[in-house]
Design a protein that fits this description.
By secondary structure, this protein is mainly alpha-helical. The chain contains 5 helices and no strands.
């Protein structure tokens, strides 16, 4: 991953988010996507990889899979991101 790729990801997340599929996501999923987009754009702007970028990526993936009711969820290390992740952790425990 590079700052330029992070910018591209940010734009693609924005495009998806405001399309039909993105608006169907649950509220906490949309929050995770917005945070991932924000951190991706910050990487490009500041040229420094933000803390918790990959944690938010993992949370977003987990929540997207949950929204689609897909099985086989991967483990994600989401400790250390507050307060959204506190809420998400309860959902993850319920799913597993």
């Amino acid at each position: 991953m590079t700052p330029e790729k992070a910018k591209q990801v940010s734009y693609e997340l924005n495009e998806w988010f405001y399309s039909t599929g993105g608006m169907c996501a649950e509220a906490d999923t949309r929050g995770a996507i917005l945070q991932l987009r924000k951190l991706s754009m910050a990487w490009w702007q500041q040229r420094v990889e933000p803390d918790h970028l990959y944690d938010w990526r993992n949370v977003a993936m987990l929540l997207l899979r949950r929204d689609l009711d897909l099985q086989g969820l991967e483990s994600s290390n989401i400790e250390g991101i507050k307060p959204l992740l506190k809420k998400v952790q309860a959902d993850i425990a319920f799913i597993q």
